[in-house]
């Protein structure tokens, strides 16, 4: 369905990466409030920002999300829980570049520490005896993690999906816009993003990861060879369709939003996706196309679609 046409312009919002001077975001998974208080005292507020809680249902998804600069996990857990967490870390597609450090006391046997290291923990540190060691290692590991984040930001290809990154797809948008102007042809821009879950709640990181993988594969298999696909955010994608007028792009968008709805009904996709469409087409040799304004219009149309409901399409077209 077409939820409406919009012509307002706004700057696309991008998630900012922490600067090297910002406090390191340390997540502590523990059920012991005393441990959390001790770590909050140890890791001062100027260099570290502490957040605590119980381990998430999917530790692997939390690590892939990369919002934390390091994770401290209390290993004084029941053996079954500790074993499950170890299996989750082992199941991460690649060794986590988010530092995962186990913390323990003097009663933890050496074979249990070794098992944690084999599972993928970067280190196991005994507290309080290893407090100074923990601080020193965290400083180094956070620097390493942020260096990796910097490389990911400047990369043109997304390592997880194989699509272009935000930077890579925007380069393509600039080039295709210039070609469209020279050839007096059409170019459409379609932005997809996950809707809220059916119960109205914001999707969890696990739901985001599952939805992002599923929808990414659909875009990979069902777009044309001439289309260029990029991943702007974990569950936000951009498709550039050269030589495609806006009406054709609407049909493309509806094909994928309908697909997401059918997969939700079948229980194979946890959320639906809506789409915003913007495009330009040659008229009498004049195509007023600007990459930033084209993307802004598509983003604004996407907001309109998501407001209208689930699996909706909204469009803004003409000389943008």
Question: Can you give a write-up of this model?
Answer:
The protein is of the alpha/beta class. It has two domains: 24-154, Rossmann fold, CATH 3.40.50; 157-317, Alpha-Beta Plaits, CATH 3.30.70.270. The chain is 43% helix and 20% strand. The chain has helices spanning 33-42, 59-65, 79-90, 110-119, 131-154, 166-183, 205-222, 246-265, 291-308; strands at 2-5, 24-29, 48-53, 70-74, 100-104, 123-126, 187-194, 228-233, 236-242, 273-280, 313-317. Helix 3 (79-90) links the parallel strand 4 (70-74) and strand 5. The radius of gyration is 23 Å and the shape is elongated. Mean pLDDT is 82; it is low at 1-19.
* Elements, N to C (H/E): EEHEHEHEHEHHEHEEHEHE
Mean pLDDT: 82
How far from one another are the termini? 22 Å
- What is the general shape? elongated
Strand content: 15-25%
State the strand order across the main sheet.
1-11-10-7-9-8
Number of helices: 9
How many strands in all? 11
State the share of residues found in helices, binned by percent.
40-55%
Largest sheet: 6 strands, mixed
What would CATH call the architecture of the largest domain? 2-Layer Sandwich
Domain unit count? 2
Named CATH topology of the largest domain: Alpha-Beta Plaits
CATH class of the largest domain: Alpha Beta
The whole-angstrom Rg is: 23 Å
CATH homologous superfamily designation of the largest domain: Reverse transcriptase/Diguanylate cyclase domain
List segments where confidence is low: pLDDT < 50 over at least 5 consecutive residues: 1-19
Structural class: alpha/beta
